[in-house]
Amino acid sequence: xxxxxxxxxIGSELEDVRMADIIAERLCTCSGIPEEICxxxxxxTVEAVNNCILHAYGQKSGKEVEILFCFCPDRVMLQVCDxxxxxxxxxx
Length: 92
Prior knowledge:
Helices cover 40% and strands 24% of the residues. The chain is built from 2 helices and 3 strands; from the N terminus they run βααββ. It has a 3-stranded antiparallel sheet with strand order 1-2-3, with helices on one face.
């Protein structure tokens, strides 16, 4: 597998978290990632996006959450970005 990067931007509404989950699942499936690892990637995606919406944005709608998936031959990288209030630095 060659390195693939995909960036999506969703709204800061909790209903949009499901869309991020579906996209993560489809990307993993299309990349041939085993189901058990796919489940872990989906969980990380949902948790990180939820944290942005709940904590950085205080559940205020109309904001953006950017999700970058990078599929490399030996790993998957996930970056979730917001422009909300900083409550600390997290690294996964």
